[in-house]
Amino acid sequence: SDDLPGLISAEVGDRAAAWDLAGTIPVEVLRRLGAAGALCAEVPAEYGGPGLSSRRNGELTAHAGTLCSSLRSVMTSQGMAAWTIQRFGTRRQRAEALPRLTRGDLAAVAFSEPQAGSDLSAIATTVKDDGDTVVLNGHKVWSTAAGYADLLVVFGRYQDGAAAVLVPTTTPGVTVRPVPQPLGCRAAGHADVLLEDVRLPAAQVLSGTGQSLPLLTTLALTYGRMSVAWGCVGIIRSCLRAAAAHARDREQFGKPLAEHQLIARHLAELLVAEQTATRVCEHAAGCWDDRSPELSTAAVLAKHVAAGHAARSAATAVQVLASAGSVDGEPVARAYRDAKLMQIIEGSEEICQLILAERALEGAV
Ligand code: FAD
Asked: How many CB atoms lie within 10 A of CB 296?
């Protein structure tokens, strides 16, 4: 489809609040968006994808983020899975797996484990060779979209290093357990995944050999950080719109809220947040499209800045709407819960700061 933003708007309609309250998005909606390539829109045309630049996919992701952060989270997972396959798959693996992800199959990415949160070097899931098969054992937690997924990209220890393995969720030994009642992005299909003697053809191991774990995770996470950052731009835009509309329409003390200067300042801060987050995301997307060596730092910066602004902007927007924004189902209330989680995933605030501090010590400026 040439009009992916229009398609996303039509599929979401006014249903985002209901999906959030129900804790689920109808899977047919996700499959239709997936089949249009909207969930991993950077996949090149040769694999059936829309082949968008990082910049254009970023704007598409922000658009989804204005409407529904749960859907946007599913996009982030599908895009991260596709990028990992594109980056590490052999020619044959790319040709087999990527067209499925642009025809409606859904995918999730599983790094995190009970003992491996911020510290992914603690990943304990094992991938063992056994003739022309591999056997996986492990416990993954909080995999976004795993509740919907046909395919999991599972990171584990392999040979002398690590590997990402394509694991169909129907494989015997795979158990997907939804995370009950997440704080936010409630319809994003978060789930824990148990892998018990999961046997697969060795051809499911991306690239076929052991890789460096930090290299694997950093490459996948860089896509995830870009996507989350743009999603945060969307959250900020929806908060700015809701706060501005409310401040124009609601009167107290004989005049619109917007004419009270303390409220006007809130609106100014929301605009500053939107502009600042957009600019850091545009910069990072430019680094991606130009294959700049600055990309991984730019993606961390974009995610860090955009998530912080999203969390503060959502709190500000609830403040401006006050009681009108204090009800489940209100966009700003949803944004408030969703945005907080953006400061935790794909590198928490603190982990982003540690990475940025390293750049500072290297003399980045
Ligand atoms: P911990 O690592 O235990 O951290 C706890 C606190 O300590 C945090 O504030 C952290 O910043 C801080 N901290 C940790 N180490 C340091 C340090 N060295 N210095 C300073 N502070 C530190 N995982 C997946 O694999 N796939 C997914 O799709 C996925 N989606 C998610 C979606 C949501 C909504 C959430 C909440 C989580 C998701 N996760 C996913 C897991 C996510 O990646 C982890 O929650 C995240 O990495 C943080 O790990 P943790 O929760 O174990 O916190």
From this structure: 18
pLDDT, position 1: 59
Ligand 1, atom 23: closest residue by C-alpha: 112
Structure tokens at 20: 């959030």
Q: With a cut of 50, which residues of the chain have pLDDT below it?
A: none
Instruction: Read off the pLDDT of residues 6-24 as tens digits, 9 standing for 90 and up.
Output: 999 999 999 999 999 999 9
185 lines ligand 1 (CB under 6 A): yes
190 C-beta closer than 6 A to ligand 1: yes
Burial (0-12, 13-18, 19+ Cβ within 10 Å), 202:
middle
Residue 94 and residue 123 in one domain: no
C-alpha–C-alpha distance, residues 218 and 224, integer Å? 10
Determine which residue's CA is closest to atom 27 belonging to ligand 1: 143
Q: Does any ligand 1 atom lie closer than 6 A to the CB of residue 350?
A: yes
Instruction: Please tell me whether residues 229 and 356 are part of one structural domain.
Output: yes
Do 269 and 344 lie in one domain? The reply is yes
Nearest to 34 by CA among 49, 53, 51, 15: 49
- Token digits of residue 352: 């982003």
